[in-house]
Amino acid sequence: MQIKDVISKLTLEEKASLCSGQGYWHTQPIADKKIPAILMCDGPVGLRKQNKMEDNLGLYDSVQTVCFPSTSTLANSFSRESLALVGQTLGSECQAQNVSMLLGPGMNIKRNPLGGRNFEYYSEDPYLTGELASSYVTALQGKGVAACTKHFAGNNQETYRMSGNSIIEERPLHEIYLAAFEKVVKQAHPRAIMCAYNALNGTFCSENKSLLTDILRDRWGFNGLVVTDWGAVKNRVKGLLAGVDLEMPGGSGAQDKNIIEAVRSGKLDEMILDKAVLNILTFVNQSINNQQRDATTNLDQDHQIAVKLAVNSAVLMKNNNNLLPLNRDKQLAFIGEFAEKPRYQGGGSSHVNSYHVDTALNWARSQHLNINYAQGYDQDKITPNSALIEEAVSLAKKSDVAIIFAGLPESFESEGADRQSMAMPENQDALIMAVTEAQPNTVVVLHTGSAVEMPWQNNVAAILNMGLAGEGVGSATGKLLFGENNPSGRLSETYPYHLEDSPSFLNFPGEEGTVHYRENIFVGYRYYDKKKLSVAFPFGSGLSYTNFTYSNLQTSSTTIKDTDQATISCLVKNEGNYTGQEVVQLYVEPGESAVLRPQRELKNFTKVLLQPGECKRVSFTLDKETFAYYNDQIHNWHVESNSYTLSIGPTSHNLPLSVNIQVTSTVPIPIHYTSFTAIGKVVKNPLGKKVVLETLREVLHVTSKQYQESSTSDQKKIDQQCEPILQSALTMPLSSLVSLGSMKSSDLSQLITNLNTKSSLKK
Ligand code: BGC
């Protein structure tokens, strides 16, 4: 039977009941009408299926399953393939557990290092976020399991997370905060999207028609299911009018009554309710069709995938004198409780009941390495423990190399609360300082889901950032430390020296529930680079045990239109002795622009595996997206006619190859002239320029007639005399022509009309 026929046979009460879930994790079934319940679960990085007690905060247990690296860590892989691998693996696990939808991935932009759920998000960069999320969603849905991208939108902090109001101007909203959602919707077609708890520009996302219908459905073409975040509904009827289909979790039925009453009283057109029911039943139907009843899973194999992903995501931040990889014959000190009880995942709704957690200590022992261990600190405490520190120092002294396992305890990074500072616990900083005084060959292995301050950065010889590496953390760390694998991750967020340096420092988390995104589009490296602020570790940075060189940049064309495509490519060679993967990054930098633009923006990347001595050509496609910014006058992406520098290299701060490309716009932008339009803008229009120059000549007592009758050399002299007057008039309003020359007010009005009707377009 067609879904529309099913809907025509449902009573009003039944339709209303379908609009919210059954309990925490199911859609509402209607047995009489053969409508089954569909199961959805958290699990962006590991399935969180609850069989007994249910909750959305990570309080009660879930079935045991493999915990993959956190989203923030996977993003450090800069690898679409890695994200596809997680999506596929989770898809198979979901099929084996009869789960039809995974509530993820989280795609919010990391606006501030303190964001409590930063570990659940990809990056400070919308391009990287959108590309990686698209890979994940495509792979997950390829296994027949729906993705539910979240939290839509402007949900970048935990303080006032259920009631806050994010005030974001149109350009940063689209260019930074919506861009990744736009990409994933258009590129990977997620079957569902979760609207956020917070309000966006004064309207709760769960009631925001502009967001959920005008932008999401009408402009981007989304045709899936809009689900609320758990408990995000304020007014269910307003939600339906805005475009919310399914409220989660299911409640007491009070909202059903509100819907029924609103239809009966004429406040809600039943057609709108039918639309939501159609989206819900389409989702139910697809889910049933996609279920693989005989699917099984192999958690041991998936554990090995978790190890591989952790290896691929680790970032070697520092490696003085090539201290790493370590020699297996050396006497080594493993220091820090995380070596024994690792920190490998975040807290809250994404928390996984892990299958088998590897520890670095167990891995080293299994390899029969010369390791001694000192706890160094207690991860449940903050104040330094001098006995533990002394023990660690004396062990470090007796060893050839000290490896300190440090980072943020889980209580520091969890859904529901932002961090209070960017510092690591005092007991760990003190330990690292003390050990480095005793042992210059000190390596820090870092476990964190977001940027931390590192007062000891200059004192340690090497830093290996494992992020929150999932349950394979121990083996992955060991394999990297001892050179079985070569680190290849890159930072998907900047590590500033201090919290105070971060662009949103003065406007995070806002006041009394309202947060103004005053830094505009200047988020993450877009800010640090524009301000030329030095940072501890830049966006996109990361080292390798081998060296790569870049050469032979080629482009298919150096002058293109914004409707064209072109290619840019270069050679990358492994010049060292280790097999390694290089992340090749493409950045674009516009020439002088009419609007404020970032210094440079990431526009593509790829990861290439090279044997020692091997060389490969890496190629990227250039298209409109490479050059566009969001223009709030036309309410759309726009490419300005301009020259653009395209640069390729291993990090945002090291781009050895570059070329200029001239791009011509095919989309005119209408200009609306008024008496306040600046003369500088008016002279860009040929008609405006003519009138302005005539007026300026009048200041010099040269009439149009006299000017036209003068010789070319005299005209040149007059022009030269006009130039300084024009320069000083550039920011004056157009109306000042009336006071400067003999122009009458009526002439000015005529001029404005002419400017607005004739040739008032810029490209
Ligand atoms: C979180 C969501 C999560 C949901 C269900 C909410 O508190 O914000 O990310 O998917 O709970 O657990």
Automatic annotation (TrEMBL):
Organism name: Levilactobacillus fujinensis
Q: What's this protein's family per the entry?
A: Belongs to the glycosyl hydrolase 3 family.
UniProt entry tagged with the keyword Hydrolase: yes
A Gene Ontology molecular function term of the record: hydrolase activity
Name listed for the protein in its UniProt record: Glycoside hydrolase family 3 C-terminal domain-containing protein
Chain ranges of the Fibronectin type III-like domain = 582-652
One Pfam family, please name it.
Glyco_hydro_3_C
Q: Keywords of this protein's UniProt record, alphabetized? A: Carbohydrate metabolism, Glycosidase, Hydrolase
